[in-house]
Every structure is written in C-alpha cells, then in structure tokens.
Amino acid sequence: MNNDSLNRKDFFKKVSLFGIGALGATTLLKACGGGDDAPAPTMDSAGAPSADPCGTEGLSESEIAGRDALNYIGQTEIPEQRCDNCALWIAPEAGSPCGGCAIMAGPINPAGWCTAWVAG
Questions:
Q1: DSSP, res 24
Q2: Burial level of 9, CB count in 10 A (0-12/13-18/19+)?
Q3: Strand, helix or coil at 73?
Q4: Averaged in consecutive runs of 10 residues, what is the pLDDT profile of the chain (120 residues)?
Q5: What are phi and psi of 69, to 5 degrees?
Q6: Is the torsion defined by CA of 72, 115, 79, 36 positive or negative?
Q7: How far apart are CA 94 and CA 35, in angstroms?
Q8: Measured between alpha carbons, how far apart are the two ends of the chain, in Å?
Q9: Which DSSP letter does residue 97 get?
Q10: pLDDT at residue number 103
Q11: What angle do CA 28, 68, 37 make, to 5 degrees?
Q12: pLDDT score of 32
C-alpha cells in the first residue's frame, strides 16, 4: 500500500473539514488582515514563539481542532510540499503575508503544511 492512499475514515474526516472551511471562508480572509506588515509572531502553549507567523487568533476551538486534525504546521519540513504549492491553497489578498485553505479555517502560512497537502 502506498502512502498516498486514503482510507474511508480519513476521507470522511477531510470532507467534513472541507465543509467547515467552506463555511468559514469569510473568516479566513478577515483573520489575516490586509496590512503590509508581517503579523507578529504568535506564542505556543508553552509561551515560546510559534513556528506559524499567521497564528490562530480569532478562531474558535472547533476551527483550531480542525487544523490540529490535519496536523497543520506553520513551517514545513518537506521543502517540495508547502501550502503555497498545494491545490487547496487560497492566495492571500494584496499585501497580506497569509493565505487561506479550501478545507481549513484561519490564516495559512505559505511555508506551512498539513496532511491534506495535494500537489497543485
């Protein structure tokens, strides 16, 4: 079995998250803002700077849980698999460093990655 296969449970999980992401599309666009400055680094639960400069500010617990379910990280360890070259990537508004995702709520770092990554 190759690693690209998708089992039934994972398929339904991702489809459900797609629905949540679609409903929150306006939140996605508003959460990142439209300023020219890069967002301030966010802190993780231990109080250290987060690897994701776009953060989760303004997201509900269920939206954050959706990101966690997809194992989203703000900085990929796989250079050829980045959010900004994923088929699900939504380009940022002019001047904003953070984009969006078709299946995940909240601002998305272009250098991020999750288990739903699909070649774009």
A1: T
A2: exposed
A3: strand
A4: 68 68 52 46 49 84 94 92 96 91 94 93
A5: -60, -30
A6: negative
A7: 9
A8: 23
A9: S
A10: 95
A11: 40
A12: 54
- Strand (E) or helix (H) holding 18: helix 8-23
pLDDT of residue 19: 59
For 15, 31, 56, 57, 105, the CA distances from 60, given in Å and listed in that order, are: 19, 12, 9, 9, 9
Which tokens go with 118? 């699909």
Length of the chain: 120
What is the Cα–Cα distance from 110 to 76, expressed in whole angstroms?
A: 9
Q: Given this model, what pLDDT does residue 71 score?
A: 94
Distances from the Cα of 61 to the Cα of 66, 105, 117, angstroms? 9, 11, 22
- Rounded to 5°, angle at Cα 44 from 38 and 46: 145
Measured between alpha carbons, how far is 94 from 81 in angstroms, rounded to an integer?
23
Q: CA 84, 82, 20, 13: dihedral to nearest 10 degrees?
A: 150
pTM exceeds cut of 0.70: no
